[in-house]
Batch of 2 targets.
Target 1
Amino acid sequence: MGIFSRRHSATIEPTSAAGPRTPFPAADAAGAALDPALRALTGEWTIDRPHSRIGFSVRHAMVTTVRGAFADYDSALYFDGAEPSRSRAELVIRVASVDTGVEQRDAHLIGTDFFDAGRWPEMAFRSTSTVHEGGESFRMTGDLTIRGVTRPVELQLDYLGSVLDPFGYERAGFDATTTIDRTDWGLVYNQRLEAGGAMVSEKVRLQFDISAIRAVPLA
């Protein structure tokens, strides 16, 4: 996920680059130093929206899965390749940008039954700690704020590699996932099914497919 400069986002030309990975070396029990290639990634990054997805999935009527994503957000990331615990991320999402592919459902989601975008137009994730679990896996803990309620969450964060694309952008890939109980944030709307169970699951899986590009320093 990104480590953020507020209101800074990136949009770049499409690319089909699929260059070589720069893998994280495994850390031993004594916390051996990470290799120089990883250290070279240290710095500020931001999410490239056209090649990323900030999404979620939830069970509907207990028999299928509805998926959606948010199109409008700001991101800021700082990755420390020498000391991953110093890495951090922030994501601020405009909830009215939700897209599940069905306009009526999207309108319901941003209404008072769910996000209530009129009162709480943004939700946010701000990291509080990052732990290197070995290899290419990390655990990022942070505060998730929805509808004015802030609660801690843990993300499973996996590094996918880095490459210099044909347009000269230094790019790194990450996947992050977690599952939350939406009622913990006041998203309690539901309808009960005649045969038992709920129309919308209380468990929601959050999925972040991130293509990050190195932020250009301000002059």
Target 2
Amino acid sequence: MGAVRDPEATRARIYEAAVAEFARHGIAGARIDRIAAAAKANKQLIYAYFGNKAELFTQVLGRSMVDLAAAVPVDPDDIEGWIDRLLDYHAAHPELLRLLFWEGIEYGSAELPDETERQAHYARKVAAIEDGQDRGVITDAIPPGDLLFLLVAVANWTAVVPQMGRILTGGEAPDRERLRASIKEAARRLVAPGGTARSAP
């Protein structure tokens, strides 16, 4: 009766438990035994399926980012709508940004274990921005990678530090709606065409 009857279901439980554990404690603070207990899985199965703790974190974050990319693709033709959807996604899935920040604390500017895959992931998003620039729907005054970085920073910061949002802008529903409108206006101004074209590298 100890045999694993549904490996995919077990993997899914481990993944969900790992997301919660890493989002709460980061890479250094996470414990495989807590993940195993929450997933109702044998600890050795986690190592067999995902490797060590750092490898498990990399796979968890990678999958979370793929889920975001599928759910909220970059839309250069509707930046404000994309920002809206991004804000909604992170409100519903706050663990993704927590995972990214824990990764930043752990690795800093050092190379990531999945650096090549991460570059490919972001290259597709940058290509969407560049396409919008080529078609003239958004500014080409800022290089596409820089522009994407600025846009996600504007959209994501309020979800990362909600206490600062509450202190600086207020914590009531009308305050949150006003801040959302301000974020969208900032994004609109960032991408507005008509600025000076970016200089060649």
